[in-house]
Amino acid sequence: MSSFQESLIPARGLWAYGHAHGHQPALDAAQKVADLVLARRLLWHLRDDTLIVPDWGGRPDRVHYPIQFYDVLFALQVMAELGRIGDPRCADALALLESKRLPDGGFPLEELNAVTADHVASRHRYAEWGPSGQRQSNPLVSLTALGVLQADTQRGR
Could you read off the pLDDT of 68-88 as tens digits, one per residue? Predict the structure, then answer.
């Protein structure tokens, strides 16, 4: 059984496929997922407005990298790609992301979610993903976060 938190990756894939092949049903399906996520303001339960925290994968109010699954940055990135970043229901998640901006203008990699290995192993990495921790800017996270915030600005917020 799939969960709400697993919906962003297929939505992104459906959107890319729909655009590449002019497949309207895929585009429509991606937008339905966006509606589902937007109804929850990306990260919060409908019933009590608390943060949706999966039993696995870490808190979605922290930025995870290199594996993007369900966190504030990835949710906003998908909304930007689907053209939905200007929706007012993204505002709280955008404010959360903006609150993470460091004095140098960059953004931190708060949760490094893969370890280095010299052999093939699940959830391991074979590349250097830059600095991690709440006080250091990570160039890859910063690039994505600044892209999301720029998309929001271009949408007129």
Answer: 888 999 999 999 999 999 999
pLDDT digits (tens, 9 = 90+) for 19-30: 999 999 999 999
Q: Which of 38, 29, 25 is nearest to 85 (CA)?
A: 38
Q: Which residues pair with 112 in a beta bridge?
A: 65
Q: Which residues of the chain have pLDDT under 70?
A: 1-2, 115-127, 155-157
How many CB atoms are located within 10 Å of the residue 104 CB? 9
Structure tokens at 106: 């960059």
Task: Answer yes or no: are the C-beta atoms of 17 and 26 closer than 8 Å.
Answer: yes
Distance CA 12, CA 82 (A): 8
Q: CB-based contacts of 16: which residues, under 8 Å, 6+ apart?
A: none
Q: 3-state class of 97 per DSSP?
A: helix
- Residue 121's contacts (CB-CB under 8 Å, 6 or more residues apart) are none
CB atoms within 10 A of CB 17: 14
For residue 122, what are its two tokens? 């699940």
